[in-house]
Amino acid sequence: MTTDSTSSVLILGAGLSGLMAARRLVAAGRTVRVLEARDRVGGRTHAVPALPGAAPTDLGATWGWSHQPQLLGLARELGLAPFEQFSTGATAYETGGTVHRLPHPSGSAGYLRFTGGAAALAQAAAAALPAGTVQLNARATALRQLPDGVEVTVAENGRLRTYRADAVVVALPPRLAAHSLQFKPALPAAVQAAQQQMPTWMSHSMKSLVTYETPFWRSQGWSGFAVSQNGPLTEIHDASPPEGRPGVLFGFFAAPHPLRNAAPAAREAAVVAQLVRIFGPAAVHPLAYQELDWTREPYTSTPADEAAPLSVPLQGPPELRTPLWQGRLIWAGAETASGEWGRLDGAVEAGARAAAQVLAGQNLASQITQDKTQAT
After folding, report:
1. b/e sequence 21-50, b meaning 16+ C-beta within 10 Å
2. Which residues share a beta bridge with 12?
3. CATH number 3.10.560.10 is the correct assignment for the domain at 1-45+118-199+298-376
4. Tens digit of pLDDT for each residue in 168-227?
5. Pairing of strands 159-170, 329-331
């Protein structure tokens, strides 16, 4: 095991919340290192090209809304303008083997997306940080409180390395942090219980992207928004880029659903068959099919996350917004937000709050040290 140099702040997780915390801390003059277990930034935002050469489309967290100032403020800072998801036309409602055409406005009216997917936010935020700030393929395994900071053990390229910092921001889903990190000393029982009880946004989800040459459903008067009691997709959206080509539909697999354990070809066939039932024979020959099951993402989900939560919290518990270890262990992540829990806006809010808590704790520690020096 080797020991690396000390940073002012370590951030665990290069999702939107961790990168927001890094952005604020760097702006305040702190030396920051962001450790990310994946080989990419973005966490639960992840986008892939709908077709070779086409703009990336979301397979992870996707939407913002006009009432979310934290997310839209960050987007403005990064120079990324959202666009409104296509929603003109009828809603399809599938039940009992029948597709009903509902002429009222689409249930997805007002949903905001970003060119290149929501992942573009994290990518732009990471690119704006000083070179070398974000370190990929670095999986934190343990945190240990020190008299004057925190030590983090990290698995990198088959070996363990330790990093030391004045403070650490844990920007992982709380349940994942409890499952994958050792804390020395152990966290208070109330904090551990809050971590275990807090569901992870997106963790039970599985999304499918189906790409066509054009959004043919629009010429038939469909908005692309559909709700199905038959499945395998329970909710379908028009995910086409703002220029309208190619045509892309994405949907959420039912959780649980027996096809989630089937071969990919079986799922693709079932999804295409459903789209044919809803939107007609033009859906029979897609150009591409892609999918992502978030329950199988070990850097997002734990075994406890496979089932959909019975209820969605309005905000994270106070135990997961309260600094520990004399203000040196700080929580971030969308599940710790005080508003817009689990969503992109909540992730941005939590990252900004975590950065403010780090700065407040470091300023207080500096003042205490200064007072002691003056007293002697």
Report:
1. bbbbbbebebebbbbbbbeebbbbbbbbbb
2. 35, 170
3. no
4. 999 999 999 999 999 999 999 999 999 999 999 989 899 999 999 999 999 999 999 999
5. parallel
